[in-house]
């Protein structure tokens, strides 16, 4: 649909694509729903997942970050062990493969050369592959045994936003349906909770002025920034740091809250921005402890928490959504903050220097 690739009234594709996330999440729920209202995934794919004794997720960039969270869904719900690998490293650091591996390639474009070379390699070994992609008919889709589509619509901005949350939504559905296929049940209704996520995304997309204020306050002049979190918040922090780096050129790193003290804390100076995610009840005390550690060294903290876990000094509070799905919403303010940081630093938001939308060389 041609209107899909128009910017319309938006100044940048990135902002348009961030705003599309509630719609894309709802579209994914519809696309993966059967006539009884339950979630469904092609039976051959579910069988392939449940026949595997171990799943190897292969991806690059933002898609790799989605894979880290997909691992949690699959392990927690379908109870299948998962390893997540950066595509470009896989052949040098090839793990000992299990007896019945399944490979899942996550790629927005379906064209990333690093991922494709792993696909070629594992096909030669006779293994099965599933590609999760936004582009039907893409190379990784054609060459794998199975494909799951993201249905996110064309993503034009180099910095990936709606494809990431679509990847998380599709991975959550795959994990849940695989669990149901094994007779396991989730402790909650995924369709309903994804609907709540879509509503939360909408609320977040309506808070752009607040995100712009945070971007100005923390990122107008800084050289560097750190993102910390524990559990899945750590993985969301990796993605938040990548977004900021890609488009604003601020040196940003994501760290596990507990790891900062093992070296990186040496970089904290007066005013260094620390974006801390606190959406997980089971690690709430520990992450807040980490914030205190960096604040006592002069850091400028920006705590993003979730309704129900909020404390007085939190800079932003996310609407309450299911804890295990929090990455789908928690990433939205990080995307918007990066967008406004880049905008106010006069960067080319949609076409950052040195980057390409899809990298077709190894
Ligand atoms: C490029 C893009 C990134 C993207 C990565 C993987 O480096 O600039 O935004 O995350 O490729 O792309 P893929 O299409 O495989 O998800």
Automatic annotation (TrEMBL):
Its main location: cytoplasm. Transmembrane segments: none annotated. Residues 45-184, 214-352 form the SIS domain. This is Glutamine--fructose-6-phosphate aminotransferase [isomerizing]. It comes from Metabacillus rhizolycopersici. It is found in: Cytoplasm. The keyword Repeat applies. Homodimer. Catalyzes the first step in hexosamine metabolism, converting fructose-6P into glucosamine-6P using glutamine as a nitrogen source. Keywords: Aminotransferase, Cytoplasm, Glutamine amidotransferase, Repeat, Transferase. Its EC number is 2.6.1.16. The active site is at residue 357. GO terms for molecular function: glutamine-fructose-6-phosphate transaminase (isomerizing) activity. The lineage of its organism: Bacteria, Bacillati, Bacillota, Bacilli, Bacillales. It catalyses: D-fructose 6-phosphate + L-glutamine = D-glucosamine 6-phosphate + L-glutamate.
């Amino acid at each position: 649909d041609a209107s899909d690739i128009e910017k319309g009234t938006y100044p940048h594709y990135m902002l348009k694509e961030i705003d599309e996330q509630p719609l894309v999440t709802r579209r994914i729920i519809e696309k993966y729903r059967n006539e009884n209202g339950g979630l469904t995934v092609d039976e051959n794919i579910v069988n392939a997942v449940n026949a595997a004794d171990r799943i190897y997720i292969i991806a690059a960039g933002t898609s790799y970050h989605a894979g880290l969270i997909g691992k949690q869904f699959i392990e927690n719900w379908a109870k299948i062990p998962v390893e997540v690998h950066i595509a470009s490293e896989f052949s040098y650091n090839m793990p000992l493969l299990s007896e019945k591996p399944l490979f899942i390639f996550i790629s927005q474009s379906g064209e990333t050369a690093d991922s494709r070379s792993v696909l070629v390699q594992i096909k030669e070994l006779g293994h099965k592959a599933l590609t999760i992609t936004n582009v039907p008919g893409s190379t990784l889709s054609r060459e794998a045994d199975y494909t799951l589509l993201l249905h996110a619509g064309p993503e034009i901005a180099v910095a990936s936003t709606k494809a990431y949350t679509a990847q998380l939504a599709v991975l959550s559905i795959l994990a849940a349906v695989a669990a149901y296929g094994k007779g396991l049940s989730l402790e909650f209704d995924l369709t309903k909770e994804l609907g709540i996520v879509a509503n939360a995304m909408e609320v977040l997309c309506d808070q752009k002025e607040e995100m712009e204020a945070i971007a100005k306050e923390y990122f107008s002049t800084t050289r560097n920034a750190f993102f910390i979190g524990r559990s899945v918040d750590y993985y969301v922090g990796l993605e938040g740091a990548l977004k900021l780096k890609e488009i604003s050129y601020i040196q940003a790193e994501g760290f596990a809250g507990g790891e900062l003290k093992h070296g990186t804390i040496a970089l904290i100076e007066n005013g260094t921005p620390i974006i801390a995610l606190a959406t997980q009840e089971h690690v709430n005390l520990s992450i807040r402890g980490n914030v205190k550690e960096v604040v006592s060294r002069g850091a400028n903290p920006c705590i993003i928490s979730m309704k129900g876990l909020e404390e007085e000094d939190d800079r932003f509070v996310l609407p309450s959504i299911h804890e295990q799905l929090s990455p789908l919403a928690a990433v939205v303010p990080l995307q918007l903050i990066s967008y406004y940081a880049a905008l106010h630093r006069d960067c080319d938001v949609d076409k950052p220097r040195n980057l390409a939308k899809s990298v077709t060389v190894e």
